[in-house]
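# step 3/5: fold
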Amino acid sequence: MPSFEVSGNILLVIAGVGSLIFIHELGHFLVAKKIGVRVHTFSLGFGMPLIRKTWGETEYRLSLIPLGGYVKLAGEHPKEGASREDWDFMSKTPAQRALVLVAGVAMNALFAFLVFILAFRIGVPFITSEIGLVAPGWPAWEAGLESGDKIIEIDGTKDPDFEDVFTAVALGGSVEGVPIKVDRAGEILQFNVVPRYDKIHGIQRIGIAPAMSQEVGRLFRYDDGAPALEAGLEVGDRIVAINGEVIKRAERIAEIEAKSPGKELTLTILRDGQEKEFKVTPLATMRWMMGLSCATTKIQAVRAGGLAAQAGLKKGDKILAINDNGVSGWFSLAEQIQGTEESDIRLGWERAGEIKELHLQLQSPEDKDRFLAGISPVLGLRVDRVMEGFPATEIGMKAGDEIVYLDGTTPRSWEDLLRIITSSEGKEMTVKWLRDGKTLTARFQPIKDEKNAIGRMGMLPMEKKIVKKYNLVGACQMGSYKAIVMVKRIYLTITGLFTHKVSSETVGGIIMIAQASYESAKVGFGKLLYFMGIISLQLAILNLLPIPVLDGGHLLFLGVEKLKGSPVSERTMAVAQYIGLTLILCLFVFATRNDILRLFMMTHQ
């Protein structure tokens, strides 16, 4: 990317973020002037002034630290017993002072509304609502959604983009689930999906990813190389064929990449209207493994419309036997079903403590795969299978053993166990497990799974996008709609933090804002304006929170003053201000810490 383009985007980001602060403080400034309060200082930024100029009674400043701004009003913090002038802020009525405080918030809200309209006149790109991947075992899979489905309505929102889908799922509050209407090859289908809280991402999810295009969206390096980048691929290249196979869906690119570790691929790409060929050899990615599986016969999810669902099995059921032969785990279950030659399989199962039996009619050998593919098992800590050539076999672990200790911790789930082993870097570990009431202990070193290595080229395709651009009336309608949605989203996010529907790890700070702003500027001016509108609304709403040092905190004090008939004491105000400032600083440090961790994860993925 040319240096002047990078510089231009950075200047756009600085101008955009700076305008939000300027607009907010301008609101305070204008209303203060209107009610006759003198303004001593109008500063964009904090700290040492870089530029200062006095016009009339006000000194205007551009200060060193561009993380905010302030308006210093006459008589805003009077000394005890000091006389007041008519132009002092504290000489005005509580209602007039409230207007000054609310003015900053109102200006940010108005600014957001106007930039939303302008953004939709220019055109704003959004990720489409087409589904790319559906994660097995997750709610969308369980409900029957498929790759290629286009979501045309979700929770009452028609013609949504993926941002709308994300909001409806992540912040939806109904225990009955989220109603979703999709277009599947011209057929309109209705689903109801109950989101599941994802501890890793800290939000509610249904297990879908947006559809990808065939254009290269991002190129990056791994510690051991950057195949696509080193081969000469560029962002924006369109992959039209791999090894002569014409690519019709981007998901096929990922499939070929994963199955080709260490194998040279010939990529045919379209760049500037011309086809070119590049040789790329995906790196082999291997996981550190202990060599065991802990899949149980208890059902985590049943796919709607599958053979298991048709047979009457449901989430929470536990399969006990196949043709009167007991099953100890998922591997044992799958092995017995695949090994039977009978078309009528007797399946013993348990539901709510009651033992039942059903007859599973299989019309063809493929029905065995269809049955198993329609069930997602619960993953636990009881060993289902140990694999030859891996440490679990060498230390004598067997199916039925239950892991109770690993590397200094007590794992509580399969996810805990997997995380500890895959991040081990091959170091020696201690494991303890139960067998027939006895605790067994051994030491082992995880090894890399070479047989199941996955290829990676260091490339991510772009998501499929649609540009939303309207005439003036349409832009006003869409701008108003998005403004309302964003206000609701901010409110639900704040409440979600307290109800644990949204993890505090998702909170972002100035680094995330700067990064997201820069990415928006790269996409286009319309996207940058849209993002600035979102930040402006967030600034408005967060400023209304009843925290001292924020406008909402000052409004709270004015309410107290109105009730008691006199201002809050200077001592009380000072203590509250210190508490409020401490809270804001702690939030700033926490958000910045989250930002740094995100950047670290991005550079080490």
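# step 4/5: annotate
The chain has three domains: 3-38+74-123+507-603, 212-286+453-461, 290-448.
# step 5/5: archive (pending)
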